[in-house]
Automatic annotation (TrEMBL):
Natural source organism: Acanthamoeba castellanii (strain ATCC 30010 / Neff)
EC number from the UniProt entry: 3.1.3.-
Coiled coil region boundaries: none
Gene3D superfamilies hit by this protein: 1.20.930.60, Uncharacterised protein PF01937, DUF89, domain 3
GO CC terms: nucleus
Family membership noted in the UniProt record: Belongs to the damage-control phosphatase family. Sugar phosphate phosphatase III subfamily.
Role: Metal-dependent phosphatase that shows phosphatase activity against several substrates, including fructose-1-phosphate and fructose-6-phosphate. Its preference for fructose-1-phosphate, a strong glycating agent that causes DNA damage rather than a canonical yeast metabolite, suggests a damage-control function in hexose phosphate metabolism.
Lineage start: Eukaryota, Amoebozoa, Discosea, Longamoebia, Centramoebida
Name of the protein described by the UniProt record: Sugar phosphate phosphatase
SUPFAM superfamilies: AF1104-like (SSF111321)
GO terms of molecular function: fructose 6-phosphate aldolase activity; fructose-1-phosphatase activity; metal ion binding
UniProt-listed InterPro entries: ARMT-1-like_metal-bd_sf, ARMT1, ARMT1-like_metal-bd
Enzyme class: hydrolase
Catalysed conversion reaction: beta-D-fructose 6-phosphate = dihydroxyacetone + D-glyceraldehyde 3-phosphate; beta-D-fructose 1-phosphate + H2O = D-fructose + phosphate
GO aspect biological process, one term: DNA damage response
Amino acid sequence: MTEAKLINLTDKSSWGYLTFKKRLPQYVGDVIRDGAQHLPPLAIENLQKLKEEIENAGVIKPIQASSEEERTACEDVEEWKEYMREHEGKRWDELPFYWLEAYYYRRMLQESQYFLNKYDVFSRTKLDGITESLHVMKSIALALVDILQRAQSDASVVEEAVELFVLRSLWGNKADLSLFSVSEDPLALVHQKLSKGDSAADEAGAAEEMKYLLVDESPQVLRHLLQLRDAKERKRVDIILDNSGLELFSDLCFAHALTELLGAEVHLHTKRDPMFVSDAMPKDIYQLIDALEEAAKNSDETRAADLAGMAQKWRHFIEAGQWKLRPHRFWNSALFFDRLEAKFPDLYHDLHQSRMAFVKGDANYRRLVGDYYYPHTTSFVSLASYFPTHVVALRVLKSEVAVGMAPGQAEAVAKKDAQWLVDGKWATIHYAPGRGQ
């Protein structure tokens, strides 16, 4: 796919190596602590051994099933044999970064006996993420209800409203690093403008949100999306989700706008199994809707009914088939997206039926373009040319892969912020036609 250097843990100065040394052992420790009352003793023992294996950078062990029941439940043991072939005999600190992460989370499932007990070892972290950000969600939800109502009565603001929801989804990707308050939210002022018609707020909000947006190809995105209003067929839009919690909430707000303002059928692609601590699964969508309904029920605020109505509408979208939840084991795999057509042609050809797919988050971005040290001016369009439909990458930078930038732009940003690639402040909106119809 490229002659650029693959990001590998042999580079001890890389973000990947720091992740391996600091974060991965910590996550296993958190799982052992949180799962002590829910997991069998053997699972706790296995997880402790996994933690020691990582800390000692031992030789990686095979993915396997302890029984035929587990083999049938997980479905991917033979696939992992193939994935591991080129890395057999390697130590943990000799692996490519993304491959290491996929393997690490798959080992976590194996050692916690997930496929037998179906206990999500990250469930407490996900629930805490909802609880801690619920006040932010409530404030945003009420603003978005106002925006939707205004857009439905005034067609001239539909484009602005859809653009806001795209940005809402983009900046929601900050949520797995830190939960920002409404006062710190770069879109809060734009919410005010669209819901109340405050042009001064629009100017201030736009300046704040654009300051950290390194690549903005949203005009091409909006042009394609707005065609949905008059389309008689192929009104499908796909979102390949990233984190649960506040980011998932932001993505469902975007899906709401697509369905209500543009008449889209939205396919929400989730992880099939727990991964990356907070990545969304179907159950996390229902848990979020339940939490919003419960918050509205227990609130004495004057607009609690609006919050409840929004959550109930999301549940209705799912039940009516306007939103389709699409878990698939490919999203948990060790493969980059350019292997999708060869390894999972059913999913590839299904995505080809979509008018446009939105790829959320940093790990999905790395899988979309490949986890390589590209020159930052490398064309995003060329790297995503294989994708089965028009594709949009909404991503806050949290790793060392960044493409599609203007000459000299990366150097200028680095002078302002030496950690710009990994500190979660900067963002990009990339668009490529892929193989879209």
